[in-house]
Amino acid sequence: MSEKKKYLFGNIETAAGPVMLTTSGLCAADHWGGFLARFDIGRMDYTVAPGIYGLNQPDANSPVFVSANYKMSFDALRSRLKKISAWILVLDTHGINVWCAAGKGTFGTGEMIARVKSVRLDEIVTHRKLIVPQLGAPGVAAHQVRQAGGFQVIYGPVRAKNIPAFIENEFKTTEKMRRIYFTVFDRAVLIPVEVIGHMKYVFWALLYFMLLSSVHRYAFSLNAALAGGIIAAVFLFAGLAAGTILTPLLLPFIPGRAFAGKGALMGVLVYGVLKMTVPAMAAWVIWDDLAWSLMVVSLASFSAMNFTGTSTYTSLSGVLKEMKIAVPIQIAVFVIGVVIWTVGQFT
Amino acid sequence: MLGNHYLKNVVTLKYDREKCIGCKMCVQVCPHAVFRMEGSKAVLVEKDDCMECGACARNCPSQAITVRAGVGCASGVIKGFLTNSEPTCDCVQDGKKSSSCC
């Protein structure tokens, strides 16, 4: 590996050979990498090598914390351990965070048993306890890990920031530490990836609107193409903003339970605000309003529904039920909007 | 603060109190406090808050809990529908990561 890993420095000797040491302090490169990943830059290749790491000169009695090989997961853990001497066992989750990897089973019983063996953890520590993030539990059967290698799985808090309190509480979680919250901050940091995820579709849609605008009144016009493109861009972004920014931010305050419904409401709100504040829209005929409002509302509804994958409380059964009803309506409404707009170009 | 609550009466979580051995694992792994201990056995208290992550069922040594575990993720459902497979937030395909989800 040619690239220097700034978060590693030196080794510590153990009964199972040398183990790499890391720090609890994050350097500028760690913060920058995490920031970029939030914007989907390098997010899929933001990894640490699976294996065992030492923190703050650990010994054979130090606790073992288990993490995923997504670097943001690894960083969240080590930075919260502060001055605590510990071992960090990093499972190979293909660079995916603990929660998502547990759902897939890569952060799972088999990998945990195998990794404990391959790093010879039974020689490095004398105790037989693994502290596993609670959100890894969907992939890990604690009783099977114990049967296979003798290590007892103790589920730690959902949030790494509660680790010091968890240790203070004699390695027991309180009910509060076990609950998964979804605060406005939690939701906000997830917005960029959601927005960027929709961008490639916006590109193709814009192309469509510009192309058809250009043949306005059966004559090619670059100005008309640009004007049409700008209008389309404003409304497509308005719809997506309603679904991917407003809906996540205001989530618990928007009436209803289904995300598609919450998004549609935000779409109506955004369109209403635009209609009242943009002077040029006052001169519109009903068909213009109808076309764009239908597109904005259906886009908002659809993109809000996609936030179910990012949220921390939606069930598969619920999403299936919601989609069965919402998706046909979203598609129909969007298509009607596009058809009205398209017909309007030729009349 | 207003809580986040999803659709009612949809989750597939099932719990057989007879089989419970009182190990408390379900209480410890559930991120939405769906289970609570009452005496020596767990009880199902907030079924509608279940997000079907499957942690309780996987960690129940006596198989008292069943749930169709899966991702409550719309784009995962769409992907499953398009590829005619199980709904999945599939991050790893053929050893390569796709750029969607997680």
Features:
heterodimer, A: 347 residues, alpha/beta, five-stranded mixed beta sheet, two-stranded parallel ribbon, 14 helices, B: 102 residues, alpha+beta, Alpha-Beta Plaits, two-stranded antiparallel ribbon, 16% strand, disordered C terminus
Verbal overview:
The complex is a heterodimer of chains A (347) and B (102). Chain A is of the alpha/beta class and 347 residues long. Chain A has a five-stranded mixed beta sheet, sandwiched between helices. The longest helix of chain A is centred in the last third of the chain and has 30 residues, at 316-345. Chain A has helices at 28-38, 71-81, 98-104, 109-118, 121-124, 142-149, 163-168, 175-178, 184-189, 191-214, 222-250, 259-277, 286-305, 316-345, and strands at 8-14, 17-22, 51-55, 64-68, 86-91, 129-133, 152-156. Chain B has 102 residues and is an alpha+beta fold. Chain B has one domain (14-97): Alpha-Beta Plaits. Chain B contains three helices and six strands; from the N terminus they run βαββαβαββ. The longest helix of chain B is centred in the C-terminal third of the chain and has 9 residues, at 74-82. Chain B is elongated, with a radius of gyration of 16 Å. The model of chain B is unreliable at 91-102 (pLDDT under 50). Chains A and B meet through α3 and α14 of A and α1 and α3 of B.
Taken as a percent bin, the fraction of beta residues of chain B is: 15-25%
Named at the architecture level, the CATH assignment of chain B is 2-Layer Sandwich
Structural class by helix and strand composition of chain B: alpha+beta
The order of strands across the largest sheet of chain A is: 1-2-3-5-4
Sheet with most strands: strand arrangement of chain B: 1-4
* First-residue to last-residue Cα separation of chain A: 63 Å
Low-confidence stretches of chain B: 91-102
- Quaternary arrangement of the chains shown? heterodimer
Write down the overall mean pLDDT of chain A: 92
The CATH topology label of chain B is Alpha-Beta Plaits
Q: Tell me the major beta sheet of chain B.
A: 2 strands, antiparallel
The largest chain-to-chain contact, stated as pair and per-chain residue counts, equals: A-B, 57 and 51 residues
Envelope shape of chain A: elongated
